[in-house]
Amino acid sequence: MALEQTQAAANKKLALKLVWIIAGALLFAFALVPLYDVICSVTGLNGKTKSTPESASQAVVDLQREVTVQFVSSVMPGLGWNFYPKQSSVKVHPGQVTTVMFEAKNTTNVEVAGQAIPSVTPGKASAHLKKIECFCFVRQTLKPGEVRALPLRFFVSAELPKDVQEMTLSYSFFPASQ
């Protein structure tokens, strides 16, 4: 009987430890996501770019260099949109303000909202892509069948490392609650 009581107490203690470990892991997981987003947006880690407008007033144009900026787009399942860049790439001088157009079309028969999430590769270039105006700053809502031109106005900072001659800006559109 004493052995059974000792075993039951040990099992209870182990179960309590496991509950605390699981609770701690869940808290850590929920705290990690916002922390990860802050670190990525500040450092440009993982290709994340800022989600606020930049000012081009202090941009210095480097006419000695050209950088190719490629554009890629995707739409996540459930959105019901077609979304693509009007041009696949542009050549820019660092510091030169450039405007490119994207197009979105709601292919459903209901109003649908979406949010664009940008990403830049290589990762070390993400901190140097400065967006002045971007459809990614706000949620986009399209009526049934609506087609909308979405401008992107940006520049590449002159501090872009010299070994980066090409970068890719990718936008993924996700469904957003209305």
CATH architectural designation of the largest domain: Sandwich
Q: Which residue ranges are poorly predicted, with pLDDT under 50 across at least 5 consecutive positions?
A: none
Q: Per the principal axes of the C-alpha atoms, what is the gross shape?
A: elongated
Largest sheet: 5 strands, mixed
CATH overall fold name of the largest domain? Ctag/Cox11 (Pfam 04442)
Query: What is the count of DSSP helices, taking H or I runs of 4+ residues?
Result: 1
Order of helices and strands: HEEEEEEEEE
By secondary-structure content and strand pairing, the structural class works out as alpha+beta
What is the mean predicted local confidence, pLDDT? 84
Give the spatial strand order of the biggest sheet: 3-1-9-5-7
- Provide the helix percentage: 10-25%
Strand content is 35-45%
Distance between the termini: 63 Å
| Number of structural domains | 2
CATH superfamily of the largest domain: Ctag/Cox11
**DSSP E strands, number:** 9
Q: How large is the radius of gyration?
A: 24 Å
CATH class of the largest domain: Mainly Beta
Describe the structure.
The chain is of the alpha+beta class. The chain has 2 domains: 42 residues; 130 residues, Ctag/Cox11 (Ctag/Cox11 (Pfam 04442)), CATH 2.60.370. 24% of the residues lie in helices and 37% in strands. The protein starts with a helix and ends with a strand. The relative contact order is 0.21.
Keywords:
178 residues; alpha+beta; Ctag/Cox11 (Pfam 04442); 2 domains; 5-stranded mixed sheet; 9 strands
Briefly characterize the structure.
The chain has 178 residues and is of the alpha+beta class. It has one helix at residues 2-43; strands spanning 67-75, 81-85, 89-92, 98-106, 112-121, 129-134, 140-142, 147-156, 166-175. It folds into 2 domains: 2-43; 46-175, Ctag/Cox11 (Pfam 04442) (Sandwich).
